[in-house]
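Progress note, sequence design subtask.
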């Protein structure tokens, strides 16, 4: 009888492990991983087309029970596929909230891979998934994430980001969630290194005007402390008949209230301390907590 050995033997075990996950059979998966020969190939890519690890398969398909079993048996939580995407990235892309939670609890990097120019946060913002955004922020995701590759075109770096994406694609809830968790309303206009390389950065307010997004976005940016003077007055005049442009011109003539200034100062301090997600834990009256979180 033909016996598989060495690499061929491992390949057969890897294929069976992958097929079991693809069929979402947690009972069979537990039985296989109780055997050393299967446990040794738990991080081996397999499957038709583009090979993937069992954990990536479970994450992308939303097979939570299989995902838990794989993690409990030592699956590498941040293993990369051929596109440098982690299992967390694929779970976020597919909108599998429970899998996202499980992966983050197991230590997955909320920022994804350094070799992938995109990130879980950008994908969640684009896909209108504010619940996943909140989970990513709980584990330290960066609200002002920029392009990771230094060789990317500067124009791309200065006109993309979570706030830009959620505004242009009309993801209002995600837009507000990003701001609540520390996204800079003056994104790209406060980075000293970037300002040395470009003369005229494009603030989010200007992007909102040019793409004629709903006035709600401009209101939120103003409430969260956007510098309304970063937008050139000539640009505003181009959209003089727009509701957003009218609001911007109106706000230019009115200073912020003291209460608003205090809220922005407190929130800015919490962002610098990376504690913005702990506002509701502050030992202050609930009415003040609500105000800091822009709640009624």
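Output:
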């Amino acid at each position: 009888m033909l016996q598989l050995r060495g690499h061929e033997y491992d390949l057969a075990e890897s294929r069976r492990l992958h097929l079991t996950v693809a069929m979402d059979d947690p009972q069979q998966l537990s039985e296989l991983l109780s055997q050393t020969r299967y446990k040794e190939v738990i991080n081996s890519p397999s499957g038709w087309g583009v090979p993937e690890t069992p954990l990536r398969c479970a994450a992308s398909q939303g097979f939570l029970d299989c995902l838990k079993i794989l993690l409990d048996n030592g699956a590498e939580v941040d293993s990369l596929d051929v596109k440098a995407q982690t299992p967390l990235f694929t779970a976020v892309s597919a909108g599998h909230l429970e899998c996202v939670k499980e992966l983050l609890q197991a230590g997955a990097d909320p920022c994804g891979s350094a070799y992938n120019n995109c990130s879980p946060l950008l994908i969640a913002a684009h896909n209108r998934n504010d619940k996943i955004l909140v989970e990513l922020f709980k584990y330290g995701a960066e609200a002002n994430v920029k392009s990771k590759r230094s060789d990317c075109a500067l124009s791309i770096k200065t006109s993309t980001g979570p706030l830009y994406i959620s505004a242009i694609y009309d993801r209002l809830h995600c837009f507000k969630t990003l701001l609540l968790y520390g996204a800079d309303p003056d994104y790209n206009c406060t980075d000293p290194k970037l300002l040395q390389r470009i003369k005229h950065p494009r603030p989010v307010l200007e992007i909102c005007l040019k793409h004629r997004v709903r006035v709600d976005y401009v209101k939120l940016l103003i409430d969260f402390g956007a510098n309304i003077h970063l937008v050139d007055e000539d640009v505003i005049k181009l959209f003089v008949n727009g509701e957003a442009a009218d609001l911007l011109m109106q706000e230019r003539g009115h200073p912020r209230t003291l209460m608003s200034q205090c809220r922005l100062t407190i929130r800015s301090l919490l962002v610098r301390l990376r504690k913005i997600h702990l506002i509701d834990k502050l030992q202050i009256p609930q009415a003040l907590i609500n105000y800091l979180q822009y709640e009624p």
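The chain has three domains: 53-118, 143-254, 257-296. Work on this subtask will continue into the next period as scheduled.
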